[in-house]
Amino acid sequence: MSGMSGGDGSEVVHPVGLRLRGRTVLVVGGGQAAHRQVAGLLAAGAVVTVVSPRVTPALEALAAAPGPLTWQRRRYEPGDLDGAWFAVAATDDSAVNREVSQGAERRRIFCARVDDHAASSAWTPAVGRLGDLVVAVHESAMPGRAALVRDAVLAGLTDGSIADGARSPVGTGTGCVTLVGGGPGDPGLITVRGHQALALADVVVADHLAPQSLLASLSSRVELIDASKLPRGRSMAQEQINALLVEHALAGRRVVRLKGGDPFVFGRGMEEFQACLAAGVPVEVVPGVTSAIAVPALAGIPVTHRGMTHEFVVVSGHLPPGHPDSLVDWASIGRLRGTVVVLMGVDTAPAIAAALIEHGRAPETPAAVVSDGSTVTQRTIRTTLADLPRTMTDEGIRPPAVWVVGDVVRLPLPRG
Prior knowledge:
Distance between the termini: 53 Å
Strand order of the largest sheet: 3-2-1-4-5
CATH architecture of the largest domain: 2-Layer Sandwich
CATH class of the largest domain: Alpha Beta
Radius of gyration: 27 Å
Helix content: 25-40%
Low-confidence stretches: 1-5, 167-172
Strand content: 15-25%
Oligomer: single chain
Largest sheet: 5 strands, parallel
Shape: globular
Number of domains: 4
Order of helices and strands: EHEHEEHEEEHEHEHEHEHEHEHEHEEHE
Number of strands: 17
Number of helices: 12
Mean pLDDT: 90
């Protein structure tokens, strides 16, 4: 490949963005290098043909499914380039890669060689994506350096230290609401998309189970509204929360409703979603890591385990069995053989445990309580279903806590 050089001898490139949606791209090779290239091309909407006698299991699965990827199980032939808009030479044979790139050069098709940066007519940048924003970094001499720069830019866009120009001035433009699941409490367990939404927010409506340290990192210009619902204590009415979300969004603000866990797992997220839709407010849901699975996992308790359980059920324990407003079929749950995970069930634990035993669960079934999951004060107490109420009283368990019933509780923890 010929080209101009910079003053330091490095190659000067003209960075462009290829719009490959619906266009044919040829990838020659089926190993890990080809796999990485194919993943990016499919994300760009390209119609990809892979030519290789063998491919990775992941590529084989992608090719077997209906979609824009076709696998030609054979060696490369010169005619494979016909009709391609772009080509990638990604075999472990430099002679084959050279043949592909030279054939592409004759056809005036840009080609990236994964084994020879200097011999490529096109360089694949280090790429990162945040929503509809694509960050691409080229580096002529040290491709690894490009990845470091890309990651730094993405981190800055995520935490808000780099502005992306997406925010409209407060009170202008079209407002919106983003329902963000903050995860079980550890701020590191919020999703990247959730973190980005917080960085762009004008108003944050948060509850007490949301990761509190994330609130401390908000800009001073962000209006913070406390919408906590304390167990048997102070609580903002759901109708008031709905009204606040709609009011601020209609005023042109970007509103984030930050909740603990996942907004659609006992989080009333759907009520807020429906309120926004009814008012004509654009609304997005950012799922969170639900405490029902994450908290037991952090305590070394899987909700399923091969050869032990093939099902698990998550139950809200905020109402005891027999309560006229309860929608839980405790008789059916008592007959299950798998794992039962109870959220919001500290005060109702005695009644729930008794109901499970009454309807068929053995009193000696292992049980565990995990309080303050994912935080520095996390505690795990193992007991049995019959002894669960007494154990929780003796240990002074208070919300937030998750408790688990099932044979998975007795699985030994790995020794470090």
